[in-house]
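Extended Data, panel c. Modelled sequence:
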Amino acid sequence: MPELPEVETTCRGIRPHVAGRKITDLIVHQRQLRWPVPGQLKRSLKNQQVESVGRRAKYLLLETGNGCLIVHLGMSGSLRIVANGVPPQKHDQVDFVFDNKILRFHDPRRFGSIHWTRQDPLQHKLLRNLGPEPFSDAFSGRYLHGRAASRKVSVKNFIMNSSVVAGVGNIYASEALFLSGIHPQRAAGRISLSRYEKLVANIRHVLSTAIEAGGTTLRDFTRENGRPGYFAQELNVYNRDGEPCPVCGHPIRLRTLGQRSSFYCSQCQH
């Protein structure tokens, strides 16, 4: 699933191609995504200029003078820039047509979604209850420590809760916990303030490093130009079950937490 770094990579990649440009047409090849593509979307978008391209958690926000387009990439989606006239391929679901190029929504599993709102997009039902962004001042060790008080849920599931912090997905939670020396199954309420401060620093480090690498391609994700992200080469524990820990050499272990694969080192993480 594209996580925050992949969505931020997409945001930065498409922005120069679409910001300040007018949408001349909308072509829906497949309306049935996770939720149906709004029936009036073409009428709302046609001849609208994209004023800005931003991100909130794992959602892309394309603001126009008429409203805001909210896009979620789902499990396997991507947005790609292609030249006008390039025919859609299998799993190309929606085309946002500009004067000399197309912003193409590709989604093999069709778990992605496209929404339209004329209101403040941050108050949309999918966004209004999200926690702070990982790079914001509101996200701190003291904030996490306070939210975690007396909670028995595992720390990994705690930091992956989007109402606690927006956009920390499975890959990057595993990596940040490894760098912080925290066992993913440890109860969130049993972690000290100082360890949460270290965890916040490592969440930011892992996410920013992944963004600079263009995200992580394990299977489906590609950037706006169709190329993969390269952070997979820098993963310490994720998807490395049985391989030696890069710090101590003990085998990386795999455990399922909250129906997600969790990779960790039993020697380095406590």
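The CA atoms of residues 245 and 252 lie 6 Å apart. This feature is highlighted in the accompanying rendering.
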